[in-house]
Amino acid sequence: MGEVDPAYFQQPEHRPKLEIVQAQGIPLIDLSELTSNDPSQQPSENLVEEIRNACRGWGFFQVVNHGVPLETRQRIMAASKEFFAQPLDEKRKVRRDEKRVLGYYDTEHTKNVRDWKEVFDLTVEDPTFVTASHHPDDQEVDEWHNQWPDFPPHLRGACEEYGRAVEKLAFKLMELIALSLGLRADRFEGFFKDQTSFVRLNHYPPCPVPHLALGVGRHKDAGALTVLAQDDVGGLEVKRKSDGQWVWASPTPDAYIINVGDIIQVWSNNVYESVEHRVMVNSERERFSIPFFFNPSHYTVVEPLEELVSNESRAKYKAYNWGKFLLTRKASNFKKLDVENIQISHFRVPELADALEGALKLN
User: Fold this and answer.
1) Which of 26, 46, 100, 358 has the smallest set of CB atoms within 10 Å of its CB?
2) Cis amide linkage into residue 152, ω under 30° from 0
């Protein structure tokens, strides 16, 4: 234990329980009807209903027959393993910092506790256009560029091919989510014109203290949608909405795990909710995973969609700028914060009862 930095240790109430609770009921959805060559084919009401129930009941689901070629996934997974197998000095040649925010990193924190992992980040669009600072009045635009290591030489091609393949799946899923909310299928498309989406290669080495540390601490995803590929080791745990229990999401061969992000929670005006999840570590086996974070353009103003707001269901969030939000989140990767990082809850409109109570206190 003396060899492990206490910075990795979770607070006692957040330490993982090593007995696994299997996640019975995480929906498994077959997308085969969308992978035909007929572009005019519309999704069935049954499929839309499956998506609706999964988003409402879990905020997480798995998809099979999704259209992403297995070879594409195998290539990026193999290249990822080759990259992370290198000596640390080699990996740090493409280390990210506050100016170059893409590339390799091994000291990331979640909820101010260090994660037991190392990562390599790349954006789908290169360059990716982002707001230059988190200051509200600053309208300057900056560019993020991917960093590529010399080895393995095929990493770049594998990552770019994978990013485009999963991007197509993400757009299909957003169409299904739009239909499940009673919106037109292309309702979300315009938000992603200059997307800030990125792919992350995750490596979780074997951990000698799996009862104290986590690969990634409890969190919700800030973007719109996450599409996760994981190996057969497993480690993802989801906080079940029905009872708050942490449950294990078992790997399904060639499936992707999908979760609703904070932006969809706001767009849907809380019809769908982003759900907490975390990653367990393994004392004997290393684990690899590849999340694709589907994020809108930096100039997107995130707010409840007008179609989902009414007198009966008033807007539950104030509008916020995604680029400013993203930049504030990114800055926290490089230093431990003394306060909670920015969350969508900071933009929550108080319920009428809360507002009245506050007004009475003031008087």
Assistant:
1) 46
2) yes
Report the length, in residues, of the chain.
363
**212, 15 Cβ separation under 8 angstroms:** yes
pLDDT tens-digit readout, 161-173: 999 999 999 999 9
Q: What is the pLDDT of residues 38-81, one digit of tens each?
A: 767 789 999 999 999 999 999 999 999 999 999 999 999 999 99
H/E stretch holding 21 reads none
Question: Distance between CA 148 and CA 156 in Å, rounded?
Answer: 7
Give the tokens for residue 155. 């990493």
Is residue 168 classed as helix, strand or coil in its secondary structure? Answer: helix
CB 176 within 8 Å of CB 43: yes
Ramachandran assignment for 234, one of left (phi > 0), alpha (psi -120 to 50 degrees), beta (any other)? left
Q: DSSP assignment of 63-84, as one string? A: EES-S--HHHHHHHHHHHHHHH
* Cα 357 to Cα 16: distance, rounded to the nearest angstrom: 38
Phi-psi region of 67 (alpha: psi -120 to 50; beta: other; left: phi over 0): left
- For 138, half-sphere exposure in the C-beta direction (CA atoms, 13 angstrom radius) is 13
The torsion angle over the Cα atoms of residues 29, 294, 35 and 51, rounded to 10 degrees, is: 30
Q: Residue-wise over 337-349: b if at least 16 C-beta within 10 A, else e?
A: eeeebbebeebee
Pairing mode, strands 28-30 and 60-64: parallel
pLDDT given at position 43:
94
**Distance in angstroms (rounded) separating the CA atoms of residues 171 and 74:** 22
- Tell me if the pTM is above 0.90: yes
